[in-house]
Amino acid sequence: MPAEDVTPHEISLAVWDLPSPLVVGRSAKMKVGAKCSAGCPLTGQDVEIHNKTEVSGRGTLGPTPWPGTSALYWAEVDLDAPAAEGTHCWEVALTASARESAHERTSSSFGFIAVPPPELCLIVKVTEKKTDVPVRDVEVRLGPHRGSTDDLGSAKVELPKGAYDLVVWKLGYRALEKAVEVMADTTVQVEIELEPEPEQEYWMG
């Protein structure tokens, strides 16, 4: 009898915890996960990160799924950032072993931004305008560079010298944007305001 055709199971891939942005020429860590549509264990399968010309990182899926999932097997992968700044699109691939009949090579693309090495440190301190109380968990952005305020309302961002649009945002507060020129280590103080409560509609019965 002829052997039955075996249709490989579908594999979905995910990447997370990739630093944003990456610094050119430096190494970084990211997490890669793979899940089989049939729930097969993928322990020991190899994953690779490919740029346009070569492999930039390798890892092996671990023995247990990611917490809170039933079959998302994952690995932490070291990768080499590109030598050129700008926007890049790379590929993550599951390279199924030769003994695997249920799975085949699967790949997915992901994008990121690479920036020049930082030259200085900017500290952004965020307080609530009326109370002067530090505000934590505020998102701070200067172009592709990002940070988040701590319990003292302070965010540390390393970046090259230059002019930036500083944007600070947190749910429940009015977003604030201001132009800053950063030429040396410095601290910027920012005050943000709570969003006004929406007006209540009253209906007469």
Task: Give a description of the structure.
- It is built from no helices and 15 strands.
- The chain is mainly beta and 205 residues long.
- The protein has a five-stranded mixed sheet with strand order 2-8-7-4-5, with no helix packed on it.
- It is globular, with a radius of gyration of 23 Å.
- The mean pLDDT is 89.
Total DSSP E strands: 15
- Report the CATH architecture of the largest domain: Sandwich
Coarse structural class: mainly beta
Q: What is the number of helices?
A: 0
What would the CATH topology of the largest domain be?
Answer: Immunoglobulin-like
The biggest sheet amounts to:
5 strands, mixed
Which class of the largest domain in CATH terms? Mainly Beta
The portion of residues forming beta strands comes to over 45%
Number of domains: 2
SSE pattern, N- to C-terminal? EEEEEEEEEEEEEEE
Radius of gyration: 23 Å
Q: Looking at this structure, what is the CATH superfamily of the largest domain?
A: C2 domain
Question: Roughly how much helix do the residues carry, as a percent range?
Answer: under 10%
Strand order of the largest sheet: 2-8-7-4-5
Low-confidence stretches: none
Whole-number mean pLDDT: 89
How far is it from the N-terminal to the C-terminal residue, by CA?
80 Å
Shape: globular
